[in-house]
């Protein structure tokens, strides 16, 4: 299961997977569990997934990105389980010869994740309530 | 679309059946009270047929949306996608990853 | 001298400077010393700067970015001295409530760095030759 | 622009002078063979006047481009920016940071 993990994400490790002397620009995106003014006391989010499909779909997604940005190297890791607010649930690293490709491919990956990677989240609040996040309603995060 | 046609075909031939594993996730698993079900449908059949059969056999599944997001063998498909014996159909709540 | 350093850059440390539970999206850019097909055996780049102006100009640049993206937090570190190819010369981390702001502000900062931060680089090659990089000619990097 | 006017003014009054610290970086420092110089100009004077005075006093500075990028007191300015006593003028090769 290379794309899913239940452990905290390491940016340094992800960057190391994609960097090389011929790739001068690296763009990283981290999505973190949010507890801001829009949320109401979110202490953590419980992430679940259709794990086998996540793995397959990430493979297809990265192949799509590789078709668009053939010189880019992309690494992505999605964390599952209960993630406390402030910690990262997803990390994407893209290294490319030039920075424009790195930024564009990184943005593409996170947008596609939100469209097609079957992951769900349930917000856990300080008052004990729990809510499934429906991105068609108020986005809970990012 | 395609529902009626496949139904009629199923009624017309009524012989070959397919065993489909149905998987439910997140809020849908909570709504239905289970994470999977085994459903048999007469072939040819679509994902929509599988969904209707699930509603027949598992009454709590009637609480699911009329046209949920669906995947067939780990790929998102429309409800008119054809199923085969041994396929896995998944019903996916609105995706909220990242 | 908060923006300049002669030590290797730490992404984790930079991300920690900007992240907070109310900021759900973090974008990081790393510019690394490149030795690819466009270069000819670049072993390292020697970075020098008008240091006092770099510090002043980064302050102005981040104030400009803060005016455009008031909810974003931005940290940036530029490394000076001799940096081997493959290692990062600049790291920018931007955390914001939503990802669009994080990506846009991060891209803005690196584009502005290249336009207005007085830093120069001399490529050191495996054959012993040295060349000042003139970005109006062949870009050496990123 | 402004060069001639300020020159004429300088010739006209010729009394107040400004000591300017000129700094050179990277390739410009190599070209000129030094990283800084002290230059005196009659006021009022511009960064362009400082640059011409530098070329007069440091012959190697004639190798610099006609209109280099310049900074005055840590800010990029055009060559017609006015200088004051104690100012620092820097001549900046094409910026290549990041």
Radius of gyration of chain A: 16 Å
Form type of chain B:
globular
Number of helices of chain A: 3
- Read across the widest sheet of chain B, the strand sequence of neighbours is 2-1-7-4-5
Largest interface: A-C, 37 and 37 residues
Please summarize the sheet with the most strands of chain B.
Answer: 5 strands, mixed
| Nearest-integer average pLDDT of chain B | 89
Are there runs of chain B of 5+ residues with pLDDT below 50, and where?
1-12
Q: Which architecture of chain A per CATH?
A: Alpha-Beta Complex
Question: Strands across the major sheet of chain A, in which order?
Answer: 1-4-6-2
Shape of chain A: elongated
Structure classification of chain B? alpha+beta
What number of domains of chain A? 1
Strand content of chain A: 25-35%
How would you characterize the overall build of this protein?
The complex is a heterotetramer, with 2 copies of chain A (142 residues) and 2 copies of chain B (98 residues). Chain A contains 3 helices and 8 strands, in the order E-H-E-E-H-E-E-E-H-E-E. Chain A is of the alpha+beta class. Chain A has one domain: Aldehyde Oxidoreductase, domain 3, CATH 3.90.1170.40. In chain A, helix 2 (51-68) packs antiparallel against helix 3. Chain A is elongated and about 50 Å long. Chain B has 98 residues and is an alpha+beta fold. Mean pLDDT of chain B is 89; it is low at 1-12. The termini of chain B are far apart. The radius of gyration of chain B is 13 Å and the shape is globular. Chain B has one domain: Roll (Ubiquitin-like (UB roll)). Chain B has a 5-stranded mixed beta sheet. Chain B has a two-stranded antiparallel sheet with strand order 3-6. Classes of the chains: A alpha+beta (142), B alpha+beta (98). Chains in contact: A-B, A-C, C-D. Chains A and C meet through helix 1, strand 2 and helix 3 of A and helix 1, strand 2 and helix 3 of C.
